[in-house]
Amino acid sequence: MTEWEGFVSECMACTKCGLHKERKHVVIGRGESLNVPLLFVGEGPGEQEDIQGEAFVGRAGKLLDLLLEALEFSPRNYYIANIVKCRPPDNRTPTDEEVMACLPWLRYQVKIIKPKIIVCLGATAAKAIIDPDFKITKMRGGWVERQGKTLIMPTFHPSAVLRDSAKRDDFYLDLKKVREKLVERGL
Ligand code: URA
Ligand code: SF4
Q: How far is it, in rounded angstroms, from Cα 117 to Cα 127?
């Protein structure tokens, strides 16, 4: 068993927070490879993700995929994960306790993938990864640099874009900046 396979089987059996009680699947992520420069981090599985066991396969994921394809991101170049791996009931925002309980799993994914760029999709990811006081509408769209030189781009969650089409252009432009950065860095 590889280290990653060991992580997957441990994570699949996780009961570290109450979200394990109603889940159908633990959703580890989605990607063609772990050897990728770019990691997207969403909030947590929704209904479809819980049923199918894969990240961003519902409506929000379809929008994300559509834009990534339009901007010519190669699916071999990114991995998509979430802050919490089990679906919060009725898609509510995960609590701080749930986020704290689940973060070690994401940290482990980051350690294995070693992304050069992390895109935080929405406030839950930006608060957990960048700053607890992060205000997504005011502070999205700018690069944040981390020790080890990881670049972080906070942007809207695609579900928020589906609810409010006024966010669509900014979301697209933020993703475009990420695409340009990959090209600039030869990634
Ligand atoms: N929303 C998320 O935050 N993550 C998913 O995987 C799906 C919808
Ligand atoms: Fe474990 Fe995370 Fe699922 Fe909570 S959400 S049970 S911490 S995998």
A: 17
Nearest CA to ligand 2 atom 3: 86
The pLDDT of residue 148 is 76
* The domain made up of 16-182 is a member of CATH 3.40.470.10: yes
What lines the ligand 2 site, CB under 6 Å? 11, 14-17, 19-20, 26, 84-86, 98, 101-102, 105
**Distance from the CA of 88 to the center of ligand 2, in angstroms?**
10
Please tell me what DSSP assigns to residue 81.
Answer: E
Q: Which residues contact 28 (CB under 8 A, 6 or more apart)?
A: 8, 11, 12, 55, 81, 85, 109
**pTM score, two decimals?**
0.98
Domain ranges of the chain: 16-182
